[in-house]
Design goal:
- The protein is α+β, with helices and mostly antiparallel strands and 137 residues long.
- The chain is built from two helices and four strands; from the N terminus they run ββββαα.
- The protein has a four-stranded antiparallel beta sheet.
């Protein structure tokens, strides 16, 4: 059995800028990092980047957000390290993604509603799983 407890959420970075018109408009990309911090703490970081077409001018908008969670875990030893890592990635991404969606909306919509970026509601745990499968190929 595994017991997880959220200890901390940290906004690692935000970037918002206008760039030259991009072929990658309306794309969202994800990356993550998993790091053990001692015996019972893990840090899971989720990075989300979006390139969106600016409706106000002939440019594109680049926005990126990185956020991490510190999770305390207790295991009775019955689960393998790989299974624990899989559970932490799934739980960590599920905790963080709604906050990242809100940050995207608040920052991008602050200047003008035309350039507001709304990230889709998705099964982020499945996205992380798919990213892992791509790496393994």
């Amino acid at each position: 059995m595994l017991n997880l407890e959220l200890r901390d959420l940290k906004l690692e970075g935000v970037e918002y800028k206008y760039i030259e018109k991009s072929e990658e408009n309306n794309t969202v990309k994800f990356a993550y990092d998993f790091e053990k911090i001692g015996d019972e703490l893990v840090k899971f970081t989720l990075n989300v980047i979006c390139i969106s077409e600016s409706r106000a001018d002939e440019k594109s908008i680049f926005m990126g957000v990185a956020m991490s969670s510190i999770l305390h875990l207790e295991s009775d030893g019955e689960l393998s390290e790989d299974k624990i890592e899989q559970i932490v990635k799934s739980t960590g991404s599920t905790i963080i993604y709604p906050y990242i969606r809100t940050i995207f909306q608040n920052i991008s919509g602050a200047g003008t509603i035309e350039n507001s970026i709304t990230l889709p509601i998705i099964n982020i745990a499945k996205v992380i799983e798919d990213l892992e499968n791509e790496v393994k190929k």
